[in-house]
Specification:
It is a single chain. The chain has 546 residues and is mainly β. The protein has 4 helices and 34 strands. The chain folds into 5 domains: 95 residues, Immunoglobulin-like (Sandwich), CATH 2.60.40; 84 residues, Immunoglobulin-like (Sandwich), CATH 2.60.40; 86 residues, Immunoglobulin-like (Sandwich); 99 residues, Immunoglobulins (Immunoglobulin-like); 81 residues, Dockerin domain (Type 1 dockerin domain), CATH 1.10.1330. The radius of gyration is 30 Å and the shape is globular.
Length: 546
């Protein structure tokens, strides 16, 4: 009996050990590696972050994780090179999914909604698999022409540091991976001077967040690690710090697309000329313009920035416009308010927000709308989905308001966009005019930069801005020989008067004739008077009246 008992106990122990091994193996197997995908069509994050943990590798990175890479359309991907059991997708600034179980590589997560800590549905990714090198692939040996030069990287992606890896073959490269540390020269620009010509290049954050293997386009080119575009690097006094659209390509016909830019010049006032496939949308001192494409296609959007000294700079980007006739998910094509503003709302004044949307060609074809408003103290309104695409709200506090617009089709597929406003007591923002007739300068700006910026108001040899002789609608001030706007008393209303007023406001000029310089008749000489003259010169105001 004792022997039988001992055998029975041994058998039970063996079963327990085997079961334990199976459980441990099962836990280990739950951790996974591979490429994970995320469908950003519902959340519309500007950048998607992937935070992974729970396997033998620990966390993939400190919160919010690693930035994912945009593959095609709304699909983003991340190469999970370690063993992980869980994942959170987020936008890096608060919006995130719930704690999700990572099912393994080759799966795509589609959010059920953009609200709260959303859940996702997983499915096998059926798109093209992106090429994700752990290190640079070995290209075919080449014999590039040319010699030394300089390459630049516009670090708009916010990498802590930038390295440059250049090569012709495995045995012909500028340094071991990840290459040579680049040098910051200000305004987010990093440079590297190479001693010989290379055919290929990769930029990375010391080996992380690397770009694809790229063909090097040549000397004095700059690569933007946020837009993934190459441009010629210009040493012009006109510096274009940004040129972008408010929505990512592709958009749809009938949508409002805001083109905006930020340019500076050490030599004079900057004029912004926006074009779509060569057709001028706006040409003025306004740094943005609203473009409503009417035809589907791929457009070349161009910014030509120039200053009053004749210096120029140019940027361009490609933008695709699609036909929305078969669009099932919604797309917010325009967002407006009854105040006609884009950045400001007025305290204690009711304002009605309206969103116009495309799509919803599925199910019953209806679209449903929701407006979630966050006040300066982080309190929010109570928001519900309705068929009303407008919402009236009265801001009672001064400060920043975030209006989050949601639109949902009948199958609950949701898209959202955020709009930020500042509540003020007096609205003083300048609206962005959209001229129906392109404004063309009488004389094109100089093609080469001025060697020395002017030190005093002078007439440039090539006048880049509109008429030098004021229209007859500019009145002469009674009792004065000078016209309204002729601040420097040279007998003309032109950009020199703008500069004269700007210098007076900056304290560089003490004396000024207030009777002709106070163009908006508010009793003060300010930058608003200079702006009034700029609008007049650009043809966006037909007259300066008394």
């Amino acid at each position: 009996m004792k022997k039988r008992a001992i055998k029975l106990i041994s058998l039970i122990l063996a079963v327990v050990i085997v079961s334990s091994c199976a459980i441990i193996a099962g836990v280990s197997a739950s951790a996974a590696t591979g490429v994970v995908y995320f469908d950003n069509s519902v959340t519309n994050y500007s950048t998607v972050y992937c935070y992974m943990w729970g396997g033998s590798s620990g966390a993939n990175h400190e919160w919010p994780g690693e930035a994912m890479t945009k593959a095609d359309g709304d699909v983003w991907y991340y190469n999970a090179s370690g063993d992980y059991a869980n994942v959170i997708f987020n936008n890096g600034s608060g919006a995130q999914s719930a704690d999700l179980t990572f099912p393994g590589g080759g799966q795509i997560a589609k959010p059920d909604s953009a609200d709260g800590k959303f859940n996702v549905s997983w499915s096998a990714y059926s798109g093209d698999t992106p090429v994700i090198p752990d290190k640079p692939t070995t290209p075919q040996p080449t014999t590039p022409s040319g010699g030394a030069g300089t390459v630049y990287c516009q670090n708009d992606a916010g990498w802590g540091s930038v390295t440059c890896y250049m090569w012709n073959s495995e045995n012909d490269k500028n340094a071991a991976w990840p290459g040579v540390a680049m040098t910051s020269i200000g305004d987010g620009v990093w440079e590297y001077s190479y001693s010989k010509k290379y055919a290929n290049v990769i930029f990375s954050a010391s080996g992380n967040n690397q770009t694809p293997d790229m063909t090097f386009p040549g000397d004095s080119q700059i690569y933007n690690n946020s837009t993934n575009q190459w441009e010629p690097y210009s040493s012009s006094p006109v510096k274009i710090k940004s040129f972008a659209t408010d929505i990512e390509s592709p958009a749809y016909t009938g949508c409002e697309v805001v083109l905006s830019a930020n340019a500076t010049s050490s030599a004079g006032t900057v004029v912004y000329k926006f074009s779509a496939d060569g057709a001028v949308l706006s040409e003025s001192t306004s740094s943005s313009v609203v473009w409503v494409p009417t035809k589907a296609g791929t457009y070349k959007l161009t910014l030509d920035a120039y200053d009053t000294a004749g210096n120029t700079n140019t940027r361009s980007l490609s933008f695709t416009v699609n036909d929305p006739s078969g669009l099932e998910t919604a797309f917010i094509k325009a967002f407006k308010n009854t105040l006609g503003t884009r950045a400001q709302i007025k305290q204690n004044t009711a304002v009605t927000f309206t969103m116009d949307a495309l799509g919803g060609h599925t199910g019953n074809g209806k679209l449903f709308y929701k407006f979630l408003i966050t006040e300066p103290d982080s309190k929010t309104n109570i928001a519900y989905y309705t068929t009303n695409n407008s919402y009236t709200y009265t801001p009672t506090k001064l400060g920043k308001y975030v209006v989050k617009a949601f639109v949902q089709n009948s199958y609950n597929a949701t898209v959202t966009k955020e709009y930020t406003y500042t509540s003020v007591t007096v609205i003083d923002e300048q609206t962005n005019p959209t001229p129906t007739t392109p404004v063309t300068p009488t004389t094109a700006p100089a093609t080469s930069p001025a060697t020395q910026p002017p030190t005093a108001p002078v007439n440039p040899t090539t006048e880049p801005v509109k008429p030098t002789t004021p229209p007859e609608t500019t009145p002469t001030i009674p009792g004065s020989q000078f016209r309204l706007g002729d601040a420097n008393h040279d007998g003309e209303v032109n950009i020199m008067d703008v500069t004269f007023i700007q210098k007076h406001v900056a304290g560089m000029i003490d004396s000024i004739d207030t009777t002709v310089a106070d163009t908006n008749h508010d009793g003060y000489i300010s930058i608003k008077d200079a702006t009034q003259i700029q609008y007049f010169i650009a043809g966006m105001a037909s007259t300066l009246t008394q």
